[in-house]
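Internal tracking record. Fields below are filled automatically when a chain is submitted to the structure queue. Please do not edit lines marked as system-generated. If the sequence contains nonstandard residues, flag them in the REMARKS field before resubmitting.
Queue: standard
Priority: normal
Entity type: single polypeptide chain
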Amino acid sequence: MMQREVHMKAEDLLQTLQFRAGDFGDVVLVSGQQHRAKLCLQRLENSVKNFTFLGYTFWTGFYKGKKVTVGNGGFYAPDSAFVTELLCAGGINNLIRLGSCGALRKDIGVGDYILTTSVVGGDGASKYYVDDSFVAKVDDGLTAALREVFKTQGAVHEGGVWTTDALFRETKEIVNSYIDKGAIAVDMVTSPFVTVANLYKKKTAAILAVSDNLITGALGFADFRFFQAEMKMADLAFKVIENL
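SYSTEM-GENERATED OUTPUT FOLLOWS
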């Protein structure tokens, strides 16, 4: 039987990856998609690769004198949980997610933005960290900073984001039950991202580009409006960083 309290901590893995204290910046822009992360990377000066592990890569450089980290932080709840824990253990204090989601309201269009104001957990990873009574919370200050910038460049809807593990099990019964809980969008990342950051007492916020709509049936994964929203996210996120 296992006798140690835990097999491996985030700090242990960082050490094996030759990560050193102070390698990260104070703020990180986390994307699921590699291309979003690379859009952010293009805006950094004197960037250095912090680590590459299991397909997840982070770089740290400077933007207008501020030390900033960028990278791809997972597509799904399990990988998002462990990458977020690495970032928190590495000393980052402000975590901003640049993601995508499906809309749960008829009036929300492909290419619009969802600003997360509450988290509606539905994933399995978060349950390994907290019990069902835990309420994950985004940071008011970071969220306000995102609101101020993004509202000038597109339609921004604010509300709860539900995280699911089962993309092809977004059935009417399940979806409507989470709408009743206050969700206006669904993704596969936000719950563990915010939950883990909360446990480490880090500030976090999430802005999501809408790729599809579960109410109207719109599928915009290859829609120009979705790509345009993704492209703008990097520029807008760095404007947010300027004001932090």
